[in-house]
Design brief:
The protein is an alpha/beta fold. Helices cover 35% and strands 18% of the residues. It binds flavin-adenine dinucleotide and succinic acid.
Length: 529
């Protein structure tokens, strides 16, 4: 099948859906998404969206908090644009129908919560299910829009380029098993994060860095992949897969404690439990290593039980399903891979270094987060850059006759009877990354990780060409590439800054530099590979 469209959007989280709604004003949009449409990191977002909304707050304060968290590497212009656009983009969401939790005293306004690194209450939320409220509302609006066609269970395999420009993507129809050609005036990567590169993550299974891997293979520049944010508090329980305990629990008074009850964050930072995330995650890692304990504990039992149940209905119910009553019991927590601050390098309109290719949301590296993202700034970033990208792409997208493209050709690939290779490699990569490329790194461990990942990469590449494509195989090939990019970037950064903490280089370098990686692509090379 060959589909021609003005805009091809790969991914259906907040970034892809909000872009689609805006782009649909100037052309036809196709959204391809690898599972059912709502499945995304966005769906699970809890804390909320940071934006200046109260009289006691100001753009300057939000900008300052973002720059502080970013530890010297934020792009100031991008920070200013993003934060100043915040209120208008929040109004977009409200116009689309998103229902934020109203304030208790002023029901016409919104309740604002706090998270680590924020000097003011500025996070709009929908109880502790903000992502679900946003995602489901946007899906409703997209489904109603006659200019948007949705392709669920379609996984993008590779971008189609002519050596300099992106023309669309090859996409596997997971139900029909065909690889279809999507041709577009503008192609938009909105494929989300990379959490599944690690064994322990807050992210759902879709977070395999597909957009970053596809962009790299197509020759786009990839930036700052060493800055992987570990969320300090994921539920520690053998049956709780990837369940986050929102930072807003600490924002509302939660305190981190050791098994013996000692609150330890005062030993690490003046903001104690509300210090920036990199500092809290490292403190927990350090305490766990010192004590040999498997987790630390989050305590909010000193707050009134009724208000906890009201403010955190989702977290309360989920903890209770594991026998933990958070109004009476301490919650066992560990840090887990949560967010990629780097990604596909883009300019102020979300344009990548490849013509016709845009990247938005978590997949993109805009310069907003620097070396460490301020909590709840990512949903905001996704909204702002989707808006800017739609505006820019709308000026350029023409109803042009797109070139004739060779359909997907898999050569001699045959059906695989050895899927165990795929599952084994998945486990091995995630174990290597967790053990050697985690919260605290060393040159030796990074070198060792690099060696092992290269061996696995060669095996996976061979397997990829020998056997028929499946969703798992596509994702495996992407996570190994993303793992390599993280290791390579981490090896290049010889300093400890923000989320990149490396034992041989404890100080910060005077030169503040981003890490950029880019592959040389020959014309035609990318047609199937
Ligand atoms: P996603 O929402 O992840 O969407 C990516 C989409 O791309 C999915 O639809 C996926 O299926 C699709 N996709 C991926 N690869 C392919 C492919 N090859 N082909 C087709 N489709 C593909 N941030 C905040 O600002 N505030 C919060 O409170 C907050 N809480 C969070 C809580 C949790 C548990 C998690 C995991 C993250 C949280 N974050 C939060 C981060 C934030 O949710 C994400 O950064 C943001 O939702 C990313 O949006 P996105 O649209 O870029 O990607
Ligand atoms: C949380 O609710 O703790 C997640 C917030 C974020 O990642 O921005």
């Amino acid at each position: 099948m060959e589909i021609k469209t003005d805009y091809l959007v790969i991914g259906s989280g907040i970034a892809g859906l909000s872009f689609a709604l805006k782009a649909a004003r100037s052309g036809k949009v196709a959204i391809v998404t690898k599972k059912e449409i709502t499945e995304s990191n966005t769906l699970y977002a809890q804390g909320g969206i940071a934006s200046v909304w109260s009289q006691e707050d100001s753009f300057e304060k939000h900008i300052d908090d973002t720059l502080k968290a970013g530890d010297g590497l934020c792009n100031r212009g991008i920070v200013e644009t993003t934060i100043k656009q915040g209120p208008e983009r929040i109004r977009d969401l409200i116009r689309w129908g998103v229902d934020f939790t109203p304030g208790e005293k002023d029901s016409k306004n919104f309740d604002l919560t706090r998270e680590g690194g924020h000097s003011r209450r500025r996070i709009l939320h929908a109880d502790d299910l903000t992502g679900r409220e946003v995602e489901e509302t946007l899906v409703k609006r997209v489904r109603e829009n006659g200019s948007i066609t949705i392709y669920e269970n379609f996984i993008a395999v590779n971008l189609i380029t002519d050596g300099s420009a992106c023309l669309g993507a090859y996409v596997l129809n997971k139900k029909g098993s065909s690889v279809d050609t999507f041709l577009a005036g503008a192609t938009v990567l909105a494929t989300g994060g990379i959490g599944k590169v690690y064994l322990y993550t807050s992210n759902p299974d879709i977070a395999t860095g597909d957009g970053i891997a596809m962009a790299y293979r197509a020759g786009a520049s990839i930036g700052n992949m060493e800055f992987i944010q570990f969320h300090p508090t994921c539920l520690y329980h053998p049956h709780a897969k990837s369940f986050l305990i929102s930072e807003s629990v600490r924002g509302e008074g939660g305190v981190l404690r050791l098994k013996d009850g000692r609150a330890f964050m005062k030993d690490y930072h003046e903001l104690k439990d509300l210090a920036p995330r990199d500092i809290v995650a490292r403190a927990i890692d350090n305490e766990m290593k010192k004590t040999g304990d498997d987790c630390v504990f989050l305590d909010i039992t000193h707050k009134d039980g009724e208000s906890i149940r009201k403010r955190f209905p989702n977290i309360y119910d989920r903890c209770l399903s594991f026998g933990i009553d958070m109004t009476k019991d301490l919650i066992p927590v560990v840090p887990a891979a949560h967010y990629a601050c780097g990604g596909v390098s883009v300019d102020e309109y979300a344009r990548t270094t490849v013509k016709g290719l845009y990247a938005i949301g978590e997949t993109a590296f805009t310069g907003l987060h620097g070396a460490n993202r301020l909590a709840s700034n990512s949903l905001l970033e996704a909204l702002v850059f989707s808006h800017l990208a739609a505006k820019k792409a709308g000026e350029k997208v023409k109803k042009k006759i797109l070139s004739v493209i060779q359909p997907w050709d898999r050569g001699v690939a045959v059906e695989s009877y050895e899927s165990v290779v795929v599952s084994h490699c998945w486990d091995e990569i995630r174990r290597i990354m967790t053990d050697y490329v985690g919260i605290v790194r060393s040159t030796k461990r990074l070198r060792r990780a690099g060696k092992r990942i290269r061996i696995l990469r060669d095996e996976i590449e061979k397997y990829y060409w020998d056997y028929d494509l499946t969703g798992d195989l596509i994702e495996l090939r992407n996570i190994i590439l993303v793992a390599e990019l993280i290791i390579e970037s981490a090896r290049k950064r010889r300093e400890s800054r923000g989320l990149h903490w490396i034992t041989g280089y404890p100080g910060k370098s005077r030169r503040k530099k981003n890490t950029e990686l880019r592959k040389k692509v020959r014309a035609g090379e990318n047609a199937a590979g």
